[in-house]
Amino acid sequence: QSVLTQPPSVSGPPGQRVTISCSGSTSNIGSTYVYWYQQLPGTAPKLLIFRDDQRPSGIPDRFSGSKSGSSASLAISGLRSEDEADYYCATWDDSLSPPYVFGTGTKVTVL
Amino acid sequence: QVQLQESGPGLVKPSETLSLRCSVSGGSISSFYWSWVRQPAGKGLEWLGRIYGNGYTEYNPSLESRVTMSVDMSNNQLSLKLWSLTAADTAMYYCARHMGRNDGLDVWGRGTTVTVSS
């Protein structure tokens, strides 16, 4: 069981804005950066957001990250069919186990 | 640009030892941290541990008693050994590169499937 909790699924029609939450604690999200990964069906995860709200080169600005206290969020605006994927938050944890943790994952469905 | 390619046996028997390799091309292993991550079919991601180019390692405590990671600088490869396998170790295994010491994973391999079965 992960220390980072995400909703199992979110959905929306094309063009809508959806958000995915990631709830942690003061030993992880509350004290260090959050990362978001996108995993398209049958592929390896890809870094989507780093250091809370930064986008790697090539990631559209439709994807945005934010953090408040011990929770973080990923927003996808202008939802597109190609956004249908699994999304994972991740962060470092100051407690004993394990140092790097992934969230439980959220399936985004485009209706 | 850096590319990672995992390789392994595919099928391993219970109680045996798994050996995986991750070949790194387009860059050197030496100045980065590298993690192994696995994912059972239909389930989430699990961080197994990481290794720095000088051989420093950190492991997931849930696996620490049966995992070893190492680097082969001469061949620019990483390796993962996991012993005393059970069906619960059946998963896709990925290697990935950290952007920095305590930073995210910006480069991933395509993964290699491991099935533990007799």
What are the defining features of this structure?
heterodimer; A: 111 residues; mainly beta; six-stranded mixed beta sheet; three-stranded antiparallel beta sheet; 0% helix; B: 118 residues; four-stranded antiparallel beta sheet
Largest interface in this structure: A-B, 26 and 25 residues
The residue-averaged pLDDT of chain B reads 95
- Low-pLDDT segments of chain B: none
Q: Specify the number of helices of chain B.
A: 0
How helical, in percent, are the residues of chain B?
Answer: under 10%
Structural class of chain A: mainly beta
Structure description:
Chain A has 111 residues and is mainly beta. Chain A contains no helices and nine strands. In chain A, strands 1, 3, 4, 7, 8 and 9 form a six-stranded mixed sheet that branches. In chain A, strands 2-6-5 form a three-stranded antiparallel sheet, with no helix packed on it. Chain A is globular and about 40 Å long. The N and C termini of chain A lie far apart (29 Å). Chain B is mainly β and 118 residues long. Chain B is built from no helices and eleven strands. Chain B is globular. The N and C termini of chain B lie far apart (39 Å). In chain B, 36% of the residues are buried. The chains are: A mainly beta (111), B mainly beta (118). The A-B interface holds A 2, 32-33, 35, 37, 43-47, 50-51, 56, 88, 90, 92, 96-105 and B 35, 37, 44-47, 49-50, 58-62, 94, 96, 99, 102-106, 108-111.
Question: Concise description?
Answer:
With 111 residues, chain A is mainly β. Chain A has no helices and nine strands. Chain B is built from no helices and eleven strands.
Q: How are the SSEs placed, and which strands pair?
A:
The complex is a heterodimer of chains A (111) and B (118).
Chain A: E1 9-12, E2 18-23, E3 34-39, E4 46-49, E5 63-68, E6 71-76, E7 85-92, E8 100-102, E9 106-110
Parallel strand pairs in A: 1-9
Antiparallel strand pairs in A: 2-6, 3-4, 3-7, 5-6, 7-8, 7-9
Chain B: E1 3-7, E2 11-12, E3 18-25, E4 33-39, E5 46-52, E6 57-59, E7 67-72, E8 77-82, E9 91-98, E10 105-108, E11 112-116
Parallel strand pairs in B: 2-11
Antiparallel strand pairs in B: 1-3, 3-8, 4-5, 4-9, 5-6, 7-8, 9-10, 9-11
